[in-house]
Amino acid sequence: MSEFAIDPGSAARCARAGVCQALRRAASMPRFGRRHERPGPACRVTIAGRVWAAALASAWLLLGCGGSIEVGIGIGDGDVLDVPKVMLSRVADGFDAPLMLTHAGDGSGRLFVVEKAGRVRVIDDGAVQAEPFLDIRDRVRSGGSEQGLLSIAFAPDFAATGQAYVLYTEESGIGNVVLSRFTRAFLGGALDPSSERVLLRIPQPFTNHNGGHLAFGPGGLLYVSLGDGGGSGDPLGNGQRTDTLLGKLLRIDISVEPYAIPPGNPFGDEIWALGLRNPWRFSFDRATGDLFIGDVGQDRWEEIDVVQAGTAGGQNFGWNRMEGFDCFAGSACDTSGLTLPIVAYRHAGGDCSVTGGFVYRGRRHPGLRGIYFHGDFCSGRIRGLWPVLDGGWSGEVMLESGLGIASFGEDEDGELYVVDLPGGVIYRLGPRT
Ligand SMILES: [Ca+2]
Q1: pLDDT score recorded for residue 329
Q2: Centre of ligand 1 from the C-alpha of residue 344, in Å
Q3: Cα separation of 17 and 351, whole Å?
Q4: Integer Cα distance of 108 and 275 in angstroms
Q5: 204-254, pLDDT tens digit by residue?
Q6: What is the pLDDT of residue 401?
Q7: pLDDT at 82
């Protein structure tokens, strides 16, 4: 089990270490975060507010208090339920190395599955359609394990404009990253491969750490995550440099042709946030607009970074000065001005690469609402995190899926799906019955 995971011995260990008592006290300190609707767990083993986050979370994780003792989710005065267990139900299979799933927001109910080699395929009313929605295998370089067609995001006005954006590694250079827009050939039709309009071409120094995810956030702005360009330890220092788009979260306005820099961007260019290593997947909570980033770590920590809606940009998430809550190279580092993760978990028990997910906001499963689901690609472990009243977070392992989780995805109703890369299968997430 990883140090984040629930562990029958953790209660005893925490009691011995006295850490839980410290954390309980911390939980009673003045709140620094927002008040959330979900009451806290019975044992508040949480990171309590931004000020306490670094020290307490480190202690929490290192001493094995993670996850939980007596954890339950309160539903009202004095009522505490067990954290719901989850299960996966097979929706469709036969995909070729699927990396991502999303919807078009056009009321059609269709699901769109991105395949690594360069196709987007459609699940319509449960049936996988024979004709792809997009096929650009002729221009996608997908030989490397982190290369391929990485993401698609439908324009907020897709139903009217027929436009969607994709991120992929192309044949130029060592596999440069391209952000392009495609337009459908006719109303109700697929995207036209010949309609490509390249918005950004980002040179890559190495074949790995290409990012990359696309999602529209609050205000209809397009967010783009890019890795540090690869190599071990960010050898070029891209994460902390502001003269490169590598290791960043970008934000652009696509309502202007071809795109514009939104007025609030902190450096007057595409950069919205920095200090990221390989932010493979991120999402916005559809209820609050809060941003959740899963940033893949080097050799020790996998982390989840959160930015509350309405916060100005310019967050520095620390890489490569820090990995998770630790200084990356050496015993000391300048942590001033850095935004630390809300949670990090160690490389242990098979965990080695975080796959950022979504806050469940669907209607089918009220018991899962408000839980941020994410996973680990290597172990297949699915974890949940939820905010507690003290402004911090609590969490635990929700399922040992055994899958190679490339992504979580949402449909139009906010139901969540899991994309199994090696198996080529799409699953729907729900409570265990
Ligand atoms: Ca970080």
Answers
A1: 83
A2: 9
A3: 25
A4: 38
A5: 999 999 999 999 999 999 999 999 999 999 999 999 999 999 999 999 999
A6: 97
A7: 61
Residue list, CB under 5 A from ion ligand 1: 317-318
Residue 301 to residue 352: CA distance in whole angstroms: 8
Coil, helix or strand at residue 240: helix
Which secondary structure element, helix H or strand E, spans residue 59, and what is its range? Answer: helix 49-62
With a cut of 70, say whether residue 79 has pLDDT above it.
no
Name which residue leads in pLDDT, 324 or 51.
Answer: 324
Tokens representing residue 179 in the block: 């952000």
Ligand 1 center from residue 21 Cα (angstroms): 27
Cβ-contact 204, 169 below 8 angstroms:
yes
Ligand 1 centroid–CA 281 distance in Å is 14
Å from CA of 154 to ligand 1 middle: 28
Report the separation in Å between the CA atom of 180 and the middle of ligand 1, taken as the mean of its atom positions: 28
Mean pLDDT (the chain, rounded):
84
Domains and CATH numbers, the chain: 10-82 (no CATH), 86-431 (2.120.10.30)
Given a cut of 70, whether residue 177 has pLDDT beyond it is: yes
What residues contact residue 168 under an 8 Å CB cut-off, 6+ apart?
Answer: 118, 136, 139, 140, 148, 149, 150, 177, 178, 180
Q: Which of 52-66, 211-225, 308-322 has the lowest mean pLDDT?
A: 52-66
Between the CA of 239 and the centroid of ligand 1 the distance, in Å, is 10
Banded model confidence at residue 163, pLDDT cuts 50, 70, 90 = very high
To the nearest 10°, the Cα dihedral for 33, 287, 397, 101? -140
The whole-angstrom separation of Cα 295 and Cα 11 is 29
Pairing outcome for strands 149-154 and 163-169: antiparallel
Average pLDDT over residues 343-349: 96
For ligand 1, the distance from its centroid to the CA atom of residue 297, given in whole angstroms, is: 8
Query: Distance, CA 294 to ligand 1 centroid (Å)?
Result: 10
- Give how far Cα 416 sits from Cα of 287, 367, 398, 409, Å: 14, 14, 14, 6
